[in-house]
Design brief:
By secondary structure, the protein is of the alpha+beta class. It contains nine helices and 22 strands. Bound molecules: flavin-adenine dinucleotide.
Length: about 375
Amino acid sequence: MGAADYDAIVLGGGISALTTALQLQTKGYATAIIDKPAGAGASGLPGGLANPAYGREAKKSWQSEACIESLNRLSELTGDEQSGSAVIKKGILRPAASSAQADAFKNSIRVNGWKQGWTEWLESGEATERFPLVQAKTGALWIPVGMTIDLPGLLSGIRAKLTHLGSTLFSFEKTEVYEGADCHTVISDDREFRSPRIIFAPGSGIDDYPQWAPLKFNRVKGQVVVAAYNGFPDPGCSVASSGYAAFIGRNRVVVGSTYEHTYHNSEASVDTGMELLGRFRKMCPQIAGALTRTEYWAGIRLTTPDRKPCVGGHWKTRGFFCIAGMGSRGLLMAPLAAELLADHIHSGTKLPEEIDIARFYRTRRFMKMT
Ligand SMILES: Cc1cc2nc3c(=O)[nH]c(=O)nc-3n(C[C@H](O)[C@H](O)[C@H](O)COP(=O)(O)OP(=O)(O)OC[C@H]3O[C@@H](n4cnc5c(N)ncnc54)[C@H](O)[C@@H]3O)c2cc1C
């Protein structure tokens, strides 16, 4: 039996894969990353929000404080590898669409036990005074810790850091994994690699790996519009209302997003793009009148039955690990999930139950019936 080529091989090239690889490489594991050729996966998203108060009622997301702290660490770790930060800390304004939603937002401030200074209710006049380019007729929830992510910039910063630390990044059309006693074999196109640890992080490409076939994931298509605008400054925040407007810098905004539970292809459509631009007009009417160029992008989110990530070791094969199912909150949750998985691999630290893959194979709800 041949020796290992790497201490760990990570399959995937999105935010889950790259943050996991970064954590492992930083802990001293010689790590290789094997992605598909560019463009695949939800991490092709041009930008989005790390929003700890999600949904119509501004619910507190899973371990939101720890997630934001993890993103801060990631930004520090990768920030000097690129010009300007891709993790933009300017806060998120959530204008209420109705008085009922305003009540729900105020309730979120009261009942969710937010850290001091994490959420604040702004009456309409105050919101307009502070953020004149955003429409907030019924008041708004202000989340100063919310982040805007220039995702291509962040991923390229992580790749640069990985290369600097000695990781190797590959891109292959087809990869197969064969289980071994102590060391597993990865065959990618015509290359062969060996490692005792294989981390599967291929997003919706998880179907390419029969090892995880029994796990029940769902797929939700989503679309965004990326637009440039002229003649206005950055509004000083990003916006999450019915959809979001992520102002990713250099006069560009990403307007998202749709949730398409049934779909016939994974392409972006002009009609859906127009619908998103209609939402943007309601959020930022002045800037909406100054858009100069628009492009459409669509991707597939991999979700779990309880909308929490699926992280941990395979139920049968030692050395196989999975980090997947980030759904619509991968920008917020993946960096923390990656830290926790790397600690689990390195020191055997127990994963939090809410994200532990063990909940999949202990409960029928999470497994496909055969
Ligand atoms: C329209 C839209 C808007 C979104 N907006 C937000 C937002 O504002 N905030 C937020 O937090 N989240 C948002 N998300 C969700 C976020 O994009 C995902 O949660 C996140 O990208 C998941 O990351 P991932 O690395 O797990 O998977 P992916 O991003 O899907 O990455 C998978 C990677 O694996 C690679 N791959 C695929 N198959 C294979 C294979 N067989 N072998 C090796 N590699 C493979 C792909 O090339 C890709 O690099 C949005 C998603 C969509 C679609």
